[in-house]
Amino acid sequence: MWSAVFGLASGDGVAAMMGMGRIIRSGERVALSHYHLDAEQWSAMLSAPGATLPLISCWADDARAYVLLLEGDRPLLTSTAVEERRYLAPSSRFAGAEWGERVAYDLYGVEAMDAHGNGASALDEGGWTSTWPLSSRPGPAAGGLRPLAGSHLLRPEQTGLSGPLELSFEVRKGKVRSVEVCAGGAHRGVVSRLLGRTPEEAMPLVSRMTAGGFVAHPLAFARAVAQARGLVPGPGIRDVWMVLLEIERMSLHLFDMARTARGVDAELLATHCDHAREAIARACAEQGVSRRLMDMVTCDGFRDGLEIVPLAQAVHAVMQPRLAALEELHRVFASRLDGFAVLDVRLAERFAVGGVSGRASGRSMDMRRREAGMRLEALRATGSSQGDARAREGLRLAEIRDSLKLLERILGSIGLEDDEPAPDRTDEGIGVAEGARGDVWYWVRLKDGRIESLHVRDPGVSLLPVLGAMLRGYPISRVPAALGSIGISPAGIAL
Predict the structure, then answer these.
(1) φ and ψ of 34, to 5 deg
(2) Cα-Cα-Cα-Cα dihedral of 13, 17, 19, 25, to 10°?
(3) Which of 124, 305, 342, 491 is the most exposed place for a label (fewest CB within 10 A)?
(4) Residue pLDDT, tens place only, 179-196
């Protein structure tokens, strides 16, 4: 039945004539970058010859399955109908889609046909009060916690991460052989709590989505909402957003550097990073804003009373003099990070790993470069292709230097005009912000001014499928240090 529904043979014929992007755009256009495909077109897209577009995210609900792709530096969203709780699995073509398929099954009970992977639950570990809780037809709870796979388990307090994420390992001769992520304890049902709210009502919760993105998450959401409403924020708002994002970038880079340094007994470097981060937080507080810039971004701009010029000047003044000492200490301790937790460039490309982890492995994707009004001459940092902890720490330092230069450029030309056109209003939008740990994506669909559907993709999700390769061969005792260098934020993974 399902081969007939999805038209596999016919789809192969269509794919032979068209590339992936063209097949997607042959569907029904429903928004600026969104195309609905019928079952035959969906099958053709998954079997299209030629290059596979990088996958940003995959998700599904009762009605439709979605994949968000990157074509060049532009998002391309496609969807298809879920029929009888089933759809043809995107993971049959996009290896990184497996996590989204597993989450969709746990929440909605929709099954990805011909899926790759082991099909294990992503979120439901047997303790929920109902099965498929977001489905229109939820089932009774299975009852009883399921045992976690693997011979070793790192509880949240043992991972070194700031959040409730468990890691299950198969270990041979004392070293990691494979890794399974257990995110049930991290799932908070945040996205479901946002449905039915106006964007303005949702923003306080979005702003608290994760401490790894108090600016990046609300900024990506605000951009998605603006696109859905057919609006383009003015250059003054755009520049304020850029300044806030760069301050957050420096703060989080310092946090990740300190965590990595402590993992290799470089306590002096860690202490300097801590002091620099505290200096930034104190400068923010002295300018009348929160220490970590929470609640600064609004749907139509920024918080009333925010004076961005003195804030940027204060942060620049406390951070610039500290950079030379940080760079010198990094040179002293860098050899301890050589060859540690390596991410191969082929894996970075295949799973669209972004942020420092991707760029330090040779995947030179930085979504800031596509933003209107960006002072591109300030973005000079480039990653090596070594992909190890040393490359990641060196890149974090280089990006802090770039952030300081970008603050200077923006202050010298704040509100610089551009000619970015406003999109047509379709009540649907996609927004992205290049956060400190990678690209944060939001997709939102509005109905009568309220959020009808929403999807969030935190950059930590793209790291899940590569963790096993990065940690393979390491003793369990070294895993927390490796995770600190990679920069995963558990709160953003299971929303």
Answers:
(1) -120, 130
(2) -90
(3) 305
(4) 888 777 778 889 899 999
